[in-house]
Amino acid sequence: MTGWRHFFAILPDCILVLLGGAVTTIEITLGGLLVALILGLVIALLRRSSFRAVTALAVAYVEVFRCVPVLTQLFVIYFGLGQIGLRLSPLPAAIIGFGLNGAAYLAEIYRSGIESVPRGQSEAGSSIGMTKHQTMVWIILPQAIRVSLPPIGNYGVGLLKDSSIAVAIAAPEITFDATNLINQTYLSTQIYLLMALLYIGMSLPLSHLVRRLERRSRRGVRA
Amino acid sequence: MTPTTLPQYVATWLPELIAAAGNTLRMAIFAFLVAICLGLILALTRLSGRPILAGIAAFYVEIIRGAPALALLFLIYFGLPSLGLVLPAFLAAVVGLGMNGGAYVSEIYRAGISAVDRGQREAAQTIGMTSGQTMRYVILPQAVRIVLPPIGNYAIGLLKDTSVASLIGASELTLRARDLSSEYFMPMQIYILSGAIYFIMAAPLSAGVRYLERRLRQGR
């Protein structure tokens, strides 16, 4: 078991390298989540448009992006756009790719959030003279987003783990750095285990937080 | 004959991509079978009332759900050989995706089993059924109805996640698309084509799950 002895000798260096990668992992996650949060809301609202064509477009967006692997989407954005002259660096390509993909999922989350707001709320809004638009912005959305927070949180935790796929377009995140370390040390078992631990260390506290949020918001609805 | 126009290129790529999509389907089906069996074992173990076994199952589910599927695939494919266990890439992908999916599926089962009204269990015990019989004849048949839509959603996710197996070199659709795009230098067209094939496989499944969701909601 000389491998393990060697591994423990270089463990501090490995941890430092992977923590450096973790910064990029967090950048991809937060960047992708931000794009998805905004674009997802736009798509959810477009889906409620009274223009049939706009609704159909929003539905098509959601279906296409949810039925194609995110890895394929990353490849189209990174390699495909590069081929037609729009060369992105790996990090922005990953943020855009996960953002466009996530928007489809978040649009569905927003949609069920909006549908969960009782119809009386929008009737109340229009009965005090609010326009449809005002009712949406000031009455429906604040309640819908509250309901959507736990599933959005779950999506965010999922994204943190899925960002590992960005290794395929050489974004310098945790998985990429781990693979580089292995190329230098040949300690694949040890370093991939360490990498898995790092992901677990980041995602488990977050998912517990989301579970607490879920319980709290459920209690809030009952009261 | 070397292709010159896009339709000719597509005609060259399509048979290869479709053959690879067959591998993708096979991988998804095998991994799905591993996941639903492992998931059932994990869920029943967690509900068995034996603290140590239940604790191990809960630990497995938490750990697996905390790490990316890719990490598990890398550990199985690149890590196990150093312990003397070399798996071919396809098998490693099936095992990895199945082990990963088992954790998610067990949570779906658990939610389904606990969604069955408590009175059902009490009623079964009143008429003298053992707890094993209660589970088999009363709880599980009702739980299956509840878990079908989320299991379907899991299957759709799995079908797309098989693309990750290309990163350990398992022969499937995305790997084939990568090879073709490095051969023809036309990644845009090839990846969009491969995306379309995924779409054609996943969209009917997704429509089926939505239909199932609506029907089961009506049934109640």
Low-confidence runs of chain B? none
Shape of chain A: elongated
Just name the CATH architecture of chain A. Answer: Orthogonal Bundle
The second-level CATH architecture of chain B is Orthogonal Bundle
CATH topology of chain B: MetI-like fold
Tell me about the biggest sheet of chain B?
none
Residues in helix, % of chain B: over 70%
The most extensive contact between chains is: A-B, 40 and 43 residues
Distance between the termini of chain B: 61 Å
Radius of gyration of chain B: 21 Å
Any idea what the CATH superfamily of chain A is called?
MetI-like
Description:
The complex is a heterodimer of chains A (223) and B (220). Chain A has a single domain, classed as MetI-like (MetI-like fold). Chain A is 85% helix and 0% strand. Chain A contains 8 helices and no strands. In chain A, helix 4 packs across helix 6. The longest helix of chain A is centred in the N-terminal third of the chain and has 46 residues. The model of chain A has no long low-confidence stretch (mean pLDDT 92). With 220 residues, chain B is mainly alpha-helical. In chain B, helix 3 runs antiparallel to helix 4. Chain B is built from 8 helices and no strands. Chains A and B meet through helix 2, helix 3, helix 7 and helix 8 of A and helix 2, helix 3, helix 6, helix 7 and helix 8 of B.
